[in-house]
Specification:
Penicillin binding protein transpeptidase fold; 3-stranded mixed β-sheet; mainly alpha; 237 residues; 3 strands
């Protein structure tokens, strides 16, 4: 900074230095976020934070088989959207109406408050549990994912990293292990059962399903028909 009194360049004040360091810190955080999110727009994630936690905590076997979106049954894609995030094609990462419903806890809903985009951020990068820190990081990563990935890619990654049974991650592994068929041959009934256990796949079973899972799957199929089936996702890009 230039001083008119002395004619010499003066040292920046402490307020200026603090603002500069805050700016550089935010710039670094933004760069780091892009660095960890952008590659998975084109590359298949080799693992996820939840899979690593599973290996660390239980030392159990992980079955994870990446499968391109076009080789996953559209019935599973629409069943998951109908169950988890019906506004997925049109929102920008957050469903404010569902968040308010969840806070009030007055309405029985098929869907949860957390969007598919938020769940991708959590599953890929974060840990379980509830804390303001985790939710804050999740929100930031969700914004990056929505900005840097097309919608179809977000859904593709979700269908591949979601846990459908203990240690079984992704549509292909779940379809092969639970139904003995590739993911592209899943029916709506089978897809609705897979979507029904997503809130808690370690406690709810696809086969044989409990009465609760069967009822939830029936609700999901009804929602799928109300949305118009797989064509509801035709315009995802």
């Amino acid at each position: 900074m230039w001083s008119s009194k002395t004619g010499r360049r003066s040292k920046p004040g402490w307020k200026y230095r603090i603002r500069r360091w805050i700016f550089l810190l935010l710039l670094g955080v933004a760069f780091l976020g892009v660095l960890v999110v952008l590659p998975w727009r084109w590359m298949a994630p080799p693992t996820s934070a939840f899979m690593l936690a599973e290996r660390w905590q239980s030392d159990g076997e992980i079955d994870y088989r990446w499968t391109p979106f076009e080789r996953i049954s559209p019935q599973l894609a629409i069943a998951v959207v109908a169950s988890e995030d019906q506004k997925f094609p049109v929102h920008y990462g957050f469903d404010l109406d569902s968040i308010m419903d969840a806070l009030s806890s007055r309405q029985k809903r098929v869907r949860g408050a957390s969007t598919i985009s938020q769940q991708v951020a959590k599953n890929l990068y974060l840990w379980g549990g509830r804390s303001y820190l985790r939710k804050g990081i999740e929100a930031y990563l969700t914004l990056l994912i929505e900005s840097l990935w097309p919608k179809q890619r977000i859904l593709e990654v979700y269908l591949n990293v979601a846990e459908f049974a203990p240690g079984i991650y992704g549509a292909e592994a779940a379809s092969q292990r639970l139904f003995g068929k590739p993911a592209n041959r899943l029916t709506l009934h089978e897809s609705s059962l897979l979507a029904a256990v997503l809130p808690n796949p370690k406690r709810m079973r696809v086969t044989p399903p409990s009465d609760y899972v069967s009822s939830r799957a029936q609700d999901i199929r009804r929602e799928v028909r109300r949305l118009g089936g797989p064509p509801y996702l035709t315009f995802l890009q």
